[in-house]
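Hey,

Quick one before I head out. I ran the complex with zinc ion overnight. Inputs first:
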Amino acid sequence: MNDLRELYEEVILDHNRNPRNYPKKPEGTTHTAHGFNPLCGDEFQIHLRVKDGVIEDVGFEGAGCAISTASASLMTEALKGKRVEEAEKLFEVVHDLLTREEQVDDDELLGKLTVLTGVKEYPMRVKCATLPWHTMKGALEGKKETVSTE
Ligand code: ZN
């Protein structure tokens, strides 16, 4: 667990200091949603450009705590080039990873995202980590209203 914890802290710090695909709204964005986590005040817009069922480009804007920012940044890296159905599957797996007691073993799909499991040591921050993912799902579903973690 110590290795994972170190890795977790390293990755979160790195992505918080230097968020990928941020602030960015890809040219020709087709899907956008606004997400808000009232518990912490994290607020993001997630933008996706989807063509022929593939997420060609993705970016995000807004502001939040280190964990929500890092989670959004990791998410954008993971989504680029994925099919919409793969992104939906990834949402489910990440959601399980963050909210379930038992270990989720889907390393192949999760890759680098496995470090997010470290958030479970800080239960108050789980919604910070899931917010970008809920927002991304809302964007794919064409949600117009704000996606809230509550
Ligand atoms: Zn937060």
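The longest strand covers residues 42-51.

Talk tomorrow,
K.
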